[in-house]
Structure formats: structure tokens, C-alpha cells
Amino acid sequence: MKNIIAVGGGVLISLVLTSAAAASSFEQSMARCLAKHANMRDAATVMLECSADGGKLSGCVVLQDSAAGKGFDKAALCVAEALPMGAKTGQVKVPMRFPGS
pLDDT tens for residues 40-71? Predict the structure, then answer.
């Protein structure tokens, strides 16, 4: 019984660490995309429409951009490449909010 609890605890800790690493990786991707394409001091919202399959997004198009011409559309498309989607499939709308500083 102790072995089952130890294994179960080990699996749970691994899942938590993996989730934390994925979140950190996503935050790093978002920061990199913003630094490359837009001014991080400005705020904007962008709505994308993408195809979701296999845990990833593809074929994204920008539907709305509250700060047109300031690069947030390109930043959102860049961030979408790293956005974890889990088991979701089909066409999805992806709202993104860039809060600025």
C-alpha cells in the first residue's frame, strides 16, 4: 500500500511540475513575442480565430485588434503558436489581452 501511495504521489508531483514548467514556458513565449512585435507599455486586445488539433493552434487569423498598426496582431499570432490547447479540436476563437505596463 505504501508503494502505491508513493508512486501516486510521485506522479502527482510530476504533473504539478510539468504544469508549472509549461506555464513558465508560455509566459516566456508571450514576453518574447511582445518584445519582438509590440511595445509592452501599451495595452491592447486581440481576437484570433484558429484551428485547434493535437493540443496546438494553426491557421490563425486576426478578427479584431484594438490597437491596429502597433504590432499586437503579430504578437498574438506569435503567442498562439505556444498556447497550450489540451484536447480541444475544431475552430476556436482565442481572445488575448495585453495589459501594458
Answer: 889 999 999 999 999 999 999 999 999 999 99
Cβ atoms of 65 and 46 within 8 Å: the answer is: yes
DSSP character at residue 82: T
Beta strands across the sheet bearing 90-98: 56-65, 44-53, 90-98
User: For residues 42 and 72, what is the distance between their CA atoms, to the nearest angstrom?
Assistant: 9
Backbone φ and ψ of 64, nearest 5°:
-145, 150
Give 49's strand partners: 61, 93
Residues in contact with 67: Cβ distance below 8 Å, sequence separation at least 6, in sequence order? 38, 42, 43, 44
Asked whether the predicted pLDDT for residue 100 surpasses 60, the reply is: yes
pTM for the full model? 0.72
**Which own/partner pairs from 9-16 qualify as long-range (CB within 8 Å, at least 24 positions apart)?**
none
Partner residues linked to 62 by β-bridges? 48
